Amino acid sequence: MRVQYPVLIEDDTSGFVPDLPVIVVAGEGRDEILRLASEAIALRLYDLERDGEEWPTPSPVESIECEECEEPWEVVLVEPAEVNPVSLRLADAIQSARLTKAEVARRLGVSRQSIHRLTDPFYFNHNMRSLDRVAEVLGLGVQVSFPKRSQGRVGPQFR
């Protein structure tokens, strides 16, 4: 089973993750709040892992309290969203090249939205031609590998 973090949802308009205090989400309804929280959790775990920090242990649902919350509120266990490491590596490469996404788009003759989509951590439809073209603009190459999966921690693995 993957790791799950409790998300406190207040009045179907906002939510926060007590174990990851930097995460507060607002949305239109419970489903959107849970989707946004799942994505935010995944990105926060990526940041922690990248910085060499440990993931916090999720609190038991029964231990979550909210004295300042207005009724109704609930606690829901949420898994981190699946994150595409290709998108993350591509965004890091653009940043390392000290280029903006707009400049990469200009050099490729594509829209900024195209580059934004390729660097969206939740986008999974990359193709080798697009990656090769972006890598060329960055002065890099593309390398594909198939490492063995880690048998350690259960949950997202970022590389």
Strand order within the widest beta sheet: 3-2-1-4
Distinct helical segment count: 5
Question: What is the average per-residue confidence, as pLDDT, rounded to a whole number?
Answer: 89
Could you give a short account of the major beta sheet? 4 strands, antiparallel
Identify the overall geometry.
elongated
β-strand amount: 5-15%
Task: Count the E strands.
Answer: 4
The H-and-E topology, N to C, reads as EEEHEHHHH
> Unreliable stretches, pLDDT < 50, 5 or more residues?
none
Q: What characteristics describe this protein?
A:
single chain, about 160 residues, alpha+beta, four-stranded antiparallel beta sheet, 5 helices, 4 strands, about 35% helix, elongated
Structure notes:
- The protein is α+β, with helices and mostly antiparallel strands.
- Helices cover 37% and strands 11% of the residues.
- A 4-stranded antiparallel beta sheet has the order 3-2-1-4, with helices on one face.
- Strand 1 (5-10) and strand 2 (14-16) form a beta hairpin.
- The model has no long low-confidence stretch (mean pLDDT 89).
Task: Compile the SSE list and pairings.
Blueprint: E1 5-10, E2 14-16, E3 24-26, H1 30-50, E4 73-78, H2 85-96, H3 101-108, H4 112-118, H5 128-138
Antiparallel strand pairs: 1-2, 1-4, 2-3
In short:
The chain is an alpha+beta fold and 159 residues long. It is built from 5 helices and 4 strands, in the order βββαβαααα. 37% of the residues lie in helices and 11% in strands.
